[in-house]
Specification:
The protein is α/β, with parallel strands linked by helices and 720 residues long. The chain has 5 domains: 131 residues, Response regulator (Rossmann fold); 131 residues, 2-Layer Sandwich (Beta-Lactamase); 70 residues, Signal transduction histidine kinase, dimerisation/phosphotransfer (DHp) domain (Helix Hairpins, Orthogonal Bundle), CATH 1.10.287; 158 residues, Heat Shock Protein 90 (2-Layer Sandwich); 122 residues, Rossmann fold, CATH 3.40.50. It contains 17 helices and 25 strands. A 5-stranded parallel beta sheet has the order 2-1-3-4-5, sandwiched between helices. Helix 2 packs parallel to helix 3, helix 6 runs antiparallel to helix 8 and helix 9 crosses helix 12.
């Protein structure tokens, strides 16, 4: 039995209110005791002040007092909450019936005549003192019981909070142990049943998957709510059409949804058979959104047979859903990173393969040239054609890689001008026509009749269309059909490329424009290429303010790519200036070649000498300046990455020499970003070419400069 320690005060206080000091002495003498204290005051006002400061067991009140008599004082005491029920005993020398009635109406409990009889007064007061003490003890006991109940409630609440925290900690521990999507789904269901529900089902709608995934788990206790004829077929329980409707509603609303009507139609048997009684008897099903990203959406549904307090409360359910969402999102992100890493490794393997492919015929051609008889023009022609073709192929690969790098860093600069869509299409077709011919493919073009103008970079726009045509040719078998069509609708030019080739799997469609994303490829790599053409096409299209989309019905069903670009119907046809200057040869021009690569300097020197130029070489900046002072070159071809002094420093030093200020400076380097070109210009370099450069363009630059000098009267033998 529980016991309570009740605090006891040593003395209970009694208030005596009387205007006579002698009466104070008498009453104090009669009433004072070891456990009783008598407090005396001489007026009603003093009595009101005393009761505000102390608590009294009983008040002895004289009726006849000056200023405020006993009745008025009693009335005021009853108006105070603290003394509303305090016993009041009137002490008076005379009291008639009317006066006594008035006293009792004001809350008096008794009348005592004065002079008092000590025994009677003491006995009556003792009764009220005992009642006060008992009441105080009862209040103390009640306060202790209340405190005990509060402590028990706090302890129970703490236990529940600890249990909930332990549950959530257990959930977090399980869900973070694996980053596999399927394992995470299984653990979400295992931890939610039966702690949160009798039945749990996860719904996932992922891009590239036409049919949403569902995973379901139920508590064995659910057997009691299922048709007894089908208890053995519990594994056949599955979500019905109503489930998918509610899941989509929860996703669209972005918040939890409760279903209490038509609950019997949410889950049922996968074979579709109906019975007279409900298949799965649930009281309610709650749908909570798990994932809401564009590429993946998810919902978890909790069904309960009976809504009681044995389940975790709503805050715990919300926290569980939040942690499950984070775990599932992390699993999908890890899966995406793993797939991205795999695609990157596959891409690097393909890059190595594509780079080695042209190296093999180049190596073979070099070996043949070393073994041939001197002067064998036929073998030399064959070898140079092989080497030239393979070098062109390698240059295209490197250019594609550089384009991807520039786009990723946002450094692509477009040379915008009005461009006829017809011109773009014609150039792209001309670029891709050899692919169609090599594979005996049937190509047709259905162009829009009006002249459409696009504000853009003609080279980059041609690259977009050519990449789509090349991609269609690559994945269309020999004899297949490829169609390019153009159209115009509400200020948008539409370019469509359709083929009847291999098609694209549904799971790859959302990622077809991503870098490193490719379908399964055979080891023979018969199609060739790095698979980054579509990535370039998308980014270049977006840089022009357009969009690109792709459709395919699956493997073997062909594909369609559509590019949309802002356009106008041309009123005046744009006029484009020719960007090719006829080749001119110039004899005796002095050229200084500066490159730390011996092979580069030797090969370039031979080429320039074959064109009639006088050439000297240097392999570092210091040597180049020493040669320049005596050789006085008219043209200096500079590599940028030189030992000691870089190409920019050499250019500035040449410009500082009075007799070299008119020297034509051409940078020939592997550094070709916009920042590199800007540095070249600031160093006084007129032209910046990228390795491997088109040597015919290099000769053209020199010849053009030579002709300009002649026109300006700066040629040899003429005064400036």
């Amino acid at each position: 039995m529980t016991t309570f320690d009740i605090p006891r005060e040593e003395k209970v206080k009694i208030l005596v209110v009387d205007d006579l000091a002698s009466q104070h002495i008498v009453l104090r003498t009669v009433l004072e005791a070891p456990d009783q204290e008598v407090v005396t005051v001489s007026s009603g006002r003093q009595a009101l002040k005393a009761v505000l400061q102390q608590e009294f067991a009983v008040i002895l009140l004289d009726v006849n007092m000056p200023d405020m008599d006993g009745f008025e004082t009693a009335s005021m005491l009853r108006s105070y909450r603290r003394t509303a029920s305090t016993p009041i005993i009137f002490v008076t020398a005379y009291a008639d019936d009317a006066e006594m009635a008035r006293g009792y109406s004001l809350g008096a409990v008794d009348y005592i005549s004065s002079p008092v009889v000590p025994e009677i007064l003491s006995a009556k007061v003792r009764v009220f003192v005992q009642m006060f003490r008992m009441n105080r003890e009862l209040r103390a006991r009640a306060a202790q019981r209340e405190e005990l109940a509060r402590a028990e409630a706090q302890r129970a609440s703490a236990d529940e909070a600890r249990e909930r925290a332990d549950f959530l900690a257990h959930v977090s521990h399980l869900l973070t142990r694996s980053l596999d999507v399927e394992t995470t789904l299984v653990r979400i269901l295992e931890t939610s049943v039966p702690a949160l529900a009798d039945l749990a089902c996860v719904y996932l709608a992922l891009d590239g998957e036409q049919i949403p995934r569902t995973s379901l788990r139920f508590d064995p206790a659910l057997r009691g709510s299922i048709d007894s004829a089908r208890v053995q077929e519990l594994e056949m329980i599955s979500p019905r059409e109503r489930f998918f409707e509610l899941a989509k509603q929860a996703l669209e609303g972005g918040e939890s949804l409760i279903c209490r009507s038509e609950v019997d139609s949410v889950f049922g048997w996968s074979d579709g058979r109906e019975y007279e009684q409900p298949t799965v008897k649930l009281e309610e099903v709650r749908f909570h959104p798990l994932l809401g990203a564009a590429e993946r959406k998810g919902v978890i549904a909790f069904g309960v047979v009976c809504c009681d307090e044995s389940r975790q409360p709503a805050p715990v359910v919300s926290e569980f859903v939040s942690r499950a969402s984070i775990a599932l999102e992390n699993a999908f992100l890890f899966s995406a990173l793993r797939d991205e890493d795999r695609r990157k490794n596959e891409f690097l393997a393909m890059l190595a393969h594509e780079l080695r492919n042209p190296l093999a015929p180049i190596s073979n051609a070099v070996s043949v040239m070393k073994s041939m008889e001197p002067g064998d023009a036929k073998v030399m022609k064959w070898a140079t054609e092989i080497i030239g073709n393979q070098l062109d192929h390698m240059v295209r690969i490197v250019d594609d890689l550089l384009d991807v790098s520039r786009i990723a860093r946002g450094t692509v600069a477009l040379q915008r001008q009005p461009v006829l869509l017809r011109t773009v299409v014609e150039r792209a077709i001309e670029t891709s026509r050899p692919h169609f011919a090599a594979r005996s493919q049937v190509f047709s073009c259905e162009a829009h009749t009006d002249d459409l103008t696009i504000e853009g970079d003609v080279v980059r726009l041609t690259q977009i269309v050519a990449n789509l045509l090349n991609n269609a040719s690559k994945f269309t078998p020999p004899g297949g059909h490829i169609t390019l069509s153009t159209g115009f609708f509400e200020g948008i030019a539409v370019i469509s490329v359709i083929d009847d080739g291999e098609g694209i799997e549904a799971k790859l469609l959302p990622r077809v424009f991503d870098l490193f994303a490719q379908g399964d490829s055979a080891l023979d790599r018969a199609q060739g290429g790095l698979g980054i053409g579509l990535t370039l096409a998308r980014h270049l299209t977006e840089l022009h303010g357009g969009s690109i989309r792709c459709w395919s019905s699956g493997r073997g069903q062909g594909a369609q790519f559509v590019v949309e670009l802002p356009a106008l119907i041309a009123t005046d046809r744009p006029i484009f200036a020719a960007n090719v200057v006829p080749l001119r040869r110039a004899q005796g021009v002095r050229v200084l070649v500066v490159d730390d690569s011996t092979a580069s300097t030797e090969s370039l020197t031979i080429f320039l000498e074959l064109h009639g130029y006088e050439v000297q070489c240097a392999h570092d900046g210091v040597s180049a300046l020493a040669i320049a002072k005596t050789f006085a070159p008219e043209v200096a071809i500079l590599d940028i990455g030189l030992p000691g002094m870089n190409g920019y420093e050499v250019a500035r030093a040449i410009r500082a020499e009075a007799n070299l200020r008119d020297c034509l400076l051409i940078a020939l380097s592997g550094y070709g970003q916009e920042e590199d070109r800007r540095k070249s210009k600031s160093a006084g370099i007129e032209h910046h070419l990228i390795k491997p450069a088109d040597l015919s363009l290099l000769v053209e630059l020199i010849a053009t400069r030579r002709m300009d000098c002649r026109i300006d009267g700066r040629d040899e033998g003429q005064s400036a």
